[in-house]
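help with this.
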Amino acid sequence: MLRRQLLCLAIAVMGLTCCARKEAEISQEADTFKPLIAEAVIQFYGPSCGRAGLLPLEEAARLSEEEEAVWSGQIADLNGDQIARLAIKCAEEHSATEEGYNRNLLYLLVKSADKGSALGLNELGAAQMYCYQGVKRDIPSAAKWLEAAVAKHDTQAMQSLGFLHVNGLLGGESSFEYGKSLLLRCSIVGNQDCKTQYEFLGNSP
C-alpha cells in the first residue's frame, strides 16, 4: 500500500492521475519520470505559479495607447531580435513598478516574436511555462511558442520543450521520445543543462 501511495504521489506531482490504476501501470510511469521529478517539483510547483493575480499572456502584455506610443517609434525599424534585446535591456527604464516592467517587457517580447525572434519566442514560452512576469501558466500555449523557437534552433527552447515532453505534460504516444531527441540535440551543441537532463534519462550524448 505504501509503495502504491508513493508512486501515486510521484505521478500526481507530474499532474497525472492515479485513480483505479494497477500498480504495475503506475510503477512503469513513475519509473519513466522519476529522474526529473525533483526538478519538476521545483520548477513547476514553485512559488511563481502559486502567486495570486497571475494573468493570461495576452492580458499581461497589454499596454495603454499612450504606453504603446512610447515604443512604436523606437521599434518600427528594428528586427525581431533587436526588439527582444531592447525589451530585456530597456523595459525597466519605462516602468515605475514591477507590474509596469512586466507589461512593457512582455509587450516588446510579443512584438519581437511577431517578427520571428527566437529569443522572443523562447522567452514567451518560458513565461507561460514558469509563470514569469506575472503570466498564468498555459502549457499548451507555451509549447507553441517553444516549438517555434526550436524551429529556429534555439537551444534554450529545446531544453524547455524537451522537459515538457519527457515528463508527459503534452501527451501523445511519441512525446517522450521526441523530448529525448530535443535534449540530445541541445546537448550536442554544448548546452550543459540539456546534457545533464539527457543523462538523467539513462543516455549519453
Residues 23-44 form the longest helix (22 residues).
